[in-house]
């Protein structure tokens, strides 16, 4: 069952947080809502859930308009940022809880909780108190609990934010493997572009209460709709081309030119940062008003104050990019 949002608007006081959102979340597709703090990601998720009423517009689950239905009348699975597990219950006890609320009998509850825990590969820890589980294991229990009642949609609010950076990298991969085969629409909120790159089939970048761009992670990184999108995902510099267009350049799109070879741009180096696996050079063109950021190898000889010659990599792609938000919406959606 697909979920459709039609012209969803939300106003808090005098602030328009969402200004007419039109989206479809498809079954078997992971959609990541990405955007800066305060862009309305959680509000939109909660409108899908029925936890927050929309000021205007419609939410459809399949063909059914559920806009007026409260959360308990919608079939949703929700994984909260904090996971919100009951610490005094076992993993199985937590997963059974939504079924208990619905009055499902004990035997069936146990079986379904065991099945849901098996999906997240936690069946062997079913009888452990959740207070004794690791952060990643708790997250799996939270997902099993969200899935146990066969929801029409799985919603996750910043599911990785409670984890430390190293664990976060590993759990992100695991989460992708868990979410990929689910036969429902999955909608996940994050402000972290790495989460979006790894987890998303489609990314919705929210900005200023609107969809700034919708597309695959590749669409947003390689073909950003405008400078706002380009700057939000990764490092973006701009070069003027012969026709006077501003062209987007990512740090990996330029390389040092051979001394006697052709070159596309000369930079006066202002700063060199050692990043371990590479060096990040910040420099300026003679007529450029904004700095250009380029990554070079860790062994390259680059120093502040010097001039350096760069080429656009053969497979590097620069592209003209619009300064202003136009309502560019990715292909196929
Ligand atoms: N109940 C509320 N009452 C008033 N304002 C609210 C309420 N909930 C959210 N807001 C405001 O709406 C805007 C969007 O909030 P929301 O939590 O949806 O953003 P977000 O993109 O999820 O941000 P973050 O990444 O910081 O969680 C913010 O300016 C917030 O202050």
TrEMBL record:
Leader sequence residues: none
GO biological process, one term: quaternary ammonium group transport
Keyword tags: ATP-binding, Cell membrane, Ion transport, Iron, Iron transport, Membrane, Nucleotide-binding, Transport
Ranges for domain ABC transporter: 3-233
GO cellular component, one term: ATP-binding cassette (ABC) transporter complex
Superkingdom, taxonomy of origin: Bacteria
InterPro entries in the record: AAA+_ATPase (IPR003593), ABC_SmlMolc_Importer (IPR050093), ABC_transporter-like_ATP-bd (IPR003439), ABC_transporter-like_CS (IPR017871), ABC_transpr_FbpC (IPR015853), Mo/tungstate-bd_C_term_dom (IPR008995), P-loop_NTPase (IPR027417), Transp-assoc_OB_typ2 (IPR013611)
GO MF: ABC-type ferric iron transporter activity; ATP binding; ATP hydrolysis activity
CDD domains: ABC_Carb_Solutes_like
A Pfam match: TOBE_2
Family listed: Belongs to the ABC transporter superfamily.
Protein's name in the database: Putative spermidine/putrescine transport system ATP-binding protein
């Amino acid at each position: 069952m697909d979920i459709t949002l039609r012209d969803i608007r939300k106003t808090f006081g005098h602030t328009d947080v969402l200004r007419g959102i039109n989206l479809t979340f498809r079954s078997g597709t992971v959609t990541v809502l990405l955007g800066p703090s305060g862009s309305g990601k959680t509000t939109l998720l909660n409108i899908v859930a029925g936890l927050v009423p929309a000021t205007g517009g419609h939410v459809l689950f399949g063909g059914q308009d559920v806009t007026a239905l409260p959360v308990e009348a919608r079939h949703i699975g929700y994984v909260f940022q904090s996971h919100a597990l009951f610490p005094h219950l076992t993993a199985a006890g937590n997963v059974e809880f939504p079924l208990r609320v619905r009055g499902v009998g004990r035997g069936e509850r146990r079986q379904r909780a065991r099945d849901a825990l098996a999906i997240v590969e936690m069946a062997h820890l079913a009888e452990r108190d959740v207070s004794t589980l690791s952060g990643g294991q708790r997250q799996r229990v939270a997902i099993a609990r969200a899935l146990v009642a066969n929801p029409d949609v799985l919603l996750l609010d910043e599911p990785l934010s409670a984890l430390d950076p190293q664990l976060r990298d590993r759990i992100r991969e695991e989460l992708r493997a868990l979410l990929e085969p689910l036969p429902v629409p999955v909608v996940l909120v994050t402000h972290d572009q790495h989460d979006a790159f790894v987890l998303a089939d489609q990314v919705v970048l929210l900005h200023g209460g609107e969809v700034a761009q919708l597309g695959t992670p590749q669409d947003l990184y390689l073909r950003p709709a405008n400078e706002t999108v380009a700057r939000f995902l990764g490092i973006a510099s701009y070069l003027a081309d012969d026709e006077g267009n501003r062209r987007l350049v990512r740090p990996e799109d330029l390389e040092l030119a051979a001394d006697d070879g052709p070159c596309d741009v000369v930079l006066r180096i202002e700063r060199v940062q050692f990043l371990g696996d590479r060096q990040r050079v910040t420099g300026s063109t003679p007529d450029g008003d904004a700095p250009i950021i380029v990554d070079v190898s860790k062994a390259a000889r680059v120093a502040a104050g010097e001039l350096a010659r760069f080429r656009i990599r053969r497979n590097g792609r620069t592209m003209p990019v619009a300064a202003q938000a136009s309502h560019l919406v990715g292909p196929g959606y």
